[in-house]
Amino acid sequence: MSDEPIPEENNDEFNQERHTQEIRHSQVSARVPEGVSRGVFSTGAVVLQGGHEFILDFLLRISTPQQVVARVVLPLGVVPQMIRALKDNLTNYEKRFGVPTIPAPIPPQVTGSAESINVGTGLEADPSDEPTPPVSDVISGVSAGGTGAVGETMTPESESEQKSEPETVVKPAETGQKPPSAEELYDELKLPDEMLCGNYANAVRIGHSATEFSFDFITTFFPRSCVSARVHMAAPNIPRLLDSLTHSFEQFQRKVAQQQKRQPPQQGDQPGNL
């Protein structure tokens, strides 16, 4: 009987244990890198459908040019989980704090803020001069306060239809305007090169306070989970984000169902074939 070791390629039991070993690790906590711990603030989001993933572009629309402050890539299975978690958080928020709403802008003539600004010691504004419009009017190009632009959530179509018009959530005063296409939207956005690939996440943790919602996008890889992106949004913007996510995922499901109907049955699926 030979004492030579069995070649590795013939040791089936060893190979199975080596290649099919299941690795388990705790998902209760996730490491937060220093560069991610502060997070970024967002006033709106764009939901893009890919062939095998969803892309969430979180925007900051209170500056010029408007910027993409975080891009998160989610696998398909995480999207319905995020929708359920966001619904639960929004329900708990409404039970404790009420329905989050965007306040209506107050006309300048009511507040008189333009006439009450001190311009310096011994200096007074000329009453005959026209009052300077608020900064928010200049940035957004809409009515005072800019609420039509801030917090706006849009959902372009899927990857194969991104040239069509995205779904835009707007206030009633803007319903007569044509929503921008995906190309027009991204022409006005600043998307840094280092953000083009985005941050992958296969889990989402959502929390909220009285004024904000916080999203921790997590990669649950061995040996430890890690937060890949952290995003904060004002509470009034969350219903729009939830509506856009829900609509986009339902649209994706309908498209998959239509594709399955158009596909011819496989040969083994024909009646009478074994």
Outline the structure in words.
The protein is α/β, with parallel strands linked by helices. The protein is built from seven helices and eleven strands. It has helices at 12-20, 34-37, 78-97, 108-111, 135-140, 182-187, 238-262, and strands at residues 40-42, 44-49, 53-60, 66-75, 153-155, 167-168, 189-190, 199-200, 203-208, 212-219, 226-234. Strands 2, 3, 4, 5, 6, 7 and 8 form a seven-stranded mixed beta sheet that branches. Strands 1-11-10-9 form a four-stranded mixed beta sheet, with helices on one face. Helix 3 runs antiparallel to helix 7. The radius of gyration is 26 Å and the shape is globular. 21% of the residues are buried. The model is unreliable at 114-125 and 127-175 (pLDDT under 50).
**Could you give the count of β-strands?**
11
Number of helices: 7
Helix content: 25-40%
Distance between the termini: 47 Å
The assigned structural class equals: alpha/beta
In round numbers, the mean pLDDT is 74
* Low-confidence runs: 114-125, 127-175
Principal-axis shape equals globular
Backbone CA Rg:
26 Å
Which range does the strand content fall in?
Answer: 15-25%
Order of helices and strands: HHEEEEHHHEEHEEEEEH
Distinctive features:
274 residues; globular; alpha/beta; 27% helix
Could you give a short description of this structure?
This protein has 7 helices and 11 strands.
